[in-house]
Amino acid sequence: MRRKVVVTGLAAVSPLGDSLQETWSGICAGKSGISTVTKFDASQFRTRIGGELKGFDPLAFVSSKERRRIDDFIIYALACSEMALADSGLKIGPGNAGRTGVLIGSGIGGLATIEQEKDVLNNGGFKKVSPFTIPAALANLAAGQVSIRFGAKGPISCVVTACASGSHSIGEAFRLIRDGYADAMITGGSEAAITPLGYAAFGSMRAFSTRNDEPEKASRPFDAGRDGFVMGEGCGILVLEELSAALDRGAKIHAEVAGYGLTSDAFHIAAPPPGHEGAVRCMRMALEDAGMRPEDIDYVNAHGTSTPLNDLYETQAIKEVFGEHCRAMAVSSTKSMTGHLLGASGGLEAAICVKAMQDGIIPPTINLGNPDTGCDLDFVPHRARPAKIRNVMSNAFGFGGANAVLIFREYNG
User: Fold this and answer.
1) Backbone angles phi, psi at 204, to 5 degrees
2) Is the pTM for the entire model greater than 0.85?
3) Does residue 80 carry a catalytic annotation?
């Protein structure tokens, strides 16, 4: 028998707030976290807007010495892991350390560290480059540092599948517990790629929105005027546990992880195929894994990046998978408010999905004033909506054709 897996801890830092509660309050209010970039001088860049963390204090979670030695994406993961463990009440000690693991993804890792140390090399020579450069830059060091900080000695890994990294991480952590390799996992995604190189590179791809004069309106998934995605930064972490272990310690259970799908488009390094058949197969795989029918899903948190092809083809894929039920269920993109957190988006959006079920509120898609003619589902425009939500699907699609779909089920004991 496959073991049941539940969510007992949730945490996030995002452009909408330095906690999950602040983020969720912003989501419910239909607030945008997008503003003019302040981390560097972006005045000469095509895109000068982004979803930065506002007011986040690294020194609340790491010492000043650690702060100089690790990249921001690692700090975000440490902060959220601490908050998620506190939410779960899970104590890691000699009795359970070997059965508690960490699986945190990142699409890019320590890009800021790489840029900074390249400048040091150019200006001061190789002897000036920090010995902590590689540990700060490696994508798997978010999981590594979390494991060290909290003494989790079970499975440790890092998924790097671009914008699907966070969702793949949660899905793989789910399978590790379900199949008996671990009893608890700290999992999600973290990203801190608002840097000059990040902006120059994505700008060269023409992937970014250039709506610089209206930052709050720039991320507009499914709208006819969408012109590209808006970069965000942050982290989303879940604590997953095997159900009986969680019940034995009297844990508060937020939701059940019901299903997981993963496929590849095998089509293009950046663009999805027309109709997004890879996403179709992925959503169907997740439904089968959960033992659900399409009509069991009440809400889909779409990948919804605000790019022309992704939004159109994801809409087509949802229509194919859900048939007539696609007209009865709600679909929205919270990236309209947070921007696109790349490898962290799946972790953040998983936490948002769980909150949506708990509070009975469907997040809105803001800035949807003129829906694209091909994007004609119920995208919950402008305002959050109260609703009974039992089962939620979260979609994530990454460069290289990587697709990940998670399904969460309401837990009622």
Assistant:
1) -65, -30
2) yes
3) no
